[in-house]
Automatic annotation (TrEMBL):
Stretches that traverse the bilayer: 23-45, 57-76, 121-140, 147-165, 185-203, 215-235, 247-266, 278-296, 302-323, 344-366, 386-407
Chief localisation class: membrane
Annotated protein name in UniProt: Ammonium transporter
Segments of skewed composition (Basic and acidic residues): 479-493
Database matches in InterPro entries: Ammonium/urea_transptr (IPR029020), Ammonium_transpt (IPR001905), Ammonium_transpt_CS (IPR018047), NH4_transpt_AmtB-like_dom (IPR024041)
Superkingdom, natural source: Eukaryota
Region of interest: Disordered: 467-493
GO molecular function: ammonium channel activity
Species of origin: Friedmanniomyces simplex
GO cellular component term, pick one: plasma membrane
Alphabetical UniProt keywords: Ammonia transport, Membrane, Transmembrane, Transmembrane helix, Transport
Length: 493
């Protein structure tokens, strides 16, 4: 009996469990999950043309679900499991109680956490999922949905997991000392690079869509942007793997950089276009969040402001000058939502600035032994950061291309929709429309008020009197026919 009681106690409240850390980690993971579903789902749905709202949401929704299944069957251990290669762990499932209820640990990195392995698995899943959702932003409005269904598990396995293991799981970049607090390289640089390369392989949208891609619902887009911003508190605040002082610093710096970047981007719009744009402000918010991600808990507050200024200017120039004038973007790479600029450019920028502004105090508070960045006399950190960026970019250029070629030439699945499907949009792909608030919807029954109003208009049109019918409906009769009979009756039921 004593052994049973001891076993129950060890399972309910083991000595290694910190309930505060576990609660915060699950909360942070839920914040990140909300960034994808519904955050980016509704952001994408509002930003694209009406005919692409469903397809855009569905690409994000599908990726979120597919990544989770792949994650628990084989992918988590590639990213965070035991050593197999300098850039990948040994694949395998994490589906037994014995694997999920025990204390979390990252074996290749020799790190342990004060919460269960299940919490770590879920926390890392939401990061993997949002990376694929970000990649989708480059492919919207023309990628064949079947090709996307195949692309997601392949890119997760051969690209995302490699970056995650190399930088976070104990791989060679981890050992080299590359700093990436919460995914500036693993998530944003990789998704931006994959989006850029994949957009080239898929081909462009229809010319008419490229010339006129008016957002169909800016209010809905703003809802998604708000969820994305606030959800980033979990994105960066959860990466110390504890409810630590550095988590608070990371959250504060995240919001500071995002706010300053948004204001800077808006100022740039006013200077060059003479008008402030809310869509531009959202882009500035996103680049600010991206640029601070690799540095969130490493830099001081003034460093977050400097990084916010850089993210509000350099990606702005990239998107509004290079993106609109370079033939590479105008004729060859159709990056639908500008993921190249907001994530690839901002992610690389953030990683580089981390090498400059990381403080020794912030790095030590995170639990790392690196002596900060160049600001603290560690100039080596700058070139280490550059090496990390070059690996992520190079790996993604090669593997995104290989995956696209495999889908196109081996599986014989077209990467792009037909022109006819591109012309029609959601109805051709899914047989559904995003907004059905109109009277011509099949099966729609008008309300009594609507019916009476219609009768009144018809009466005025035909010069007839209106009488209230016995059944509550309005009947219209020709003059002189009191009983409502005869050829002059018009009745809407």
């Amino acid at each position: 009996m004593a052994n049973v009681t001891e076993l129950i106690t060890n399972l309910e409240t083991p000595t290694w469990l910190d309930t505060g850390d576990n609660a915060w980690q699950l909360t942070a993971a839920s914040f990140v999950a909300l960034q994808s579903v519904p955050g980016l789902c509704v952001l994408y749905a509002g930003l694209v043309k009406k005919k692409w709202a469903i397809n855009s949401m569905f690409m994000a929704f599908y990726a979120f679900a597919m990544v989770l299944i792949c994650w628990v069957i084989w992918a988590y251990k590639i990213a965070f499991g035991e050593y197999m290669l300098p850039f990948a762990g040994r694949p395998g499932p994490v589906l037994t109680m014995g694997e999920t209820i025990v204390q979390s640990n990252l074996p290749s990195a020799a790190l342990a956490q004060n919460f269960p392995q299940a919490t770590m698995i879920y926390f890392q899943f939401v990061f993997a999922a949002i990376t694929l959702v970000l990649v989708a932003g480059s492919f919207l409005a023309r990628m064949n949905f079947t090709a996307w269904m195949v692309f997601v598990p392949l890119w997760l396995t051969f690209s995302y997991c490699v970056g995650a293991y190399s930088l976070w799981g104990g791989g060679f970049l981890f050992k080299l000392g590359v700093l990436d607090y919460s995914g500036g390289y693993v998530i944003h640089l990789s998704s931006g690079t994959a989006g850029f390369v994949g957009a080239w392989w898929i081909g462009p949208r229809l010319k008419s869509d490229r010339e006129n891609f008016q957002p169909n619902n800016v209010v809905l887009m703003m809802v998604g942007a708000g969820i994305l911003w606030i959800g980033w508190n979990g994105f960066n605040g959860g990466d110390p793997y504890s409810a630590s002082p550095d988590a608070g610093v990371a959250v504060l710096n995240t919001n500071t950089a995002a706010a300053f970047s948004m204001l800077t981007w808006t100022t740039m719009d006013i200077i060059f276009y003479k008008k402030p744009s809310i869509i531009g402000a959202i882009n500035g918010m996103i680049t600010g969040l991206v640029v601070i991600t690799p540095a969130a808990g490493f830099v001081a507050g003034w460093g977050a402001i400097v990084m916010g200024f850089c993210s509000g200017t350099i990606p702005w120039l990239s998107m509004n000058i290079a993106g609109k004038k370079w033939s590479l973007f105008t004729h060859h790479v159709d990056d639908c939502l500008g993921i190249t600029h907001t994530h690839m450019v901002a992610g690389a920028l953030g990683g580089f600035l981390t090498g400059l502004f990381a403080t020794t105090t912030g790095v030590y508070a995170f639990g790392d032994a690196i002596n900060g960045g160049a600001i603290n006399g560690n100039g080596r950190q700058v070139w280490v950061q550059i090496v990390g960026a070059l690996f992520i970019v190079g790996w993604n250029v090669v593997w995104t291309s290989l995956i696209m070629m495999f889908i196109k030439f081996v599986l014989r699945i077209p990467l792009r929709m037909t022109d006819e499907q591109c012309l029609i949009g959601d109805d051709a792909i899914h047989g559904e429309e995003a907004y059905c608030f109109s009277d011509d919807v099949s099966g729609l029954v008008p309300s009594l008020t609507t019916e009476m109003r219609a009768n009144e208009k018809l009466a005025v049109l035909h010069g007839r009197d209106i009488e209230e019918g016995n059944n509550g409906h309005s009947s219209m009769h020709s003059p002189g026919k009191e009983d409502g009979s005869g050829d002059g009756e018009i009745k809407i039921d």
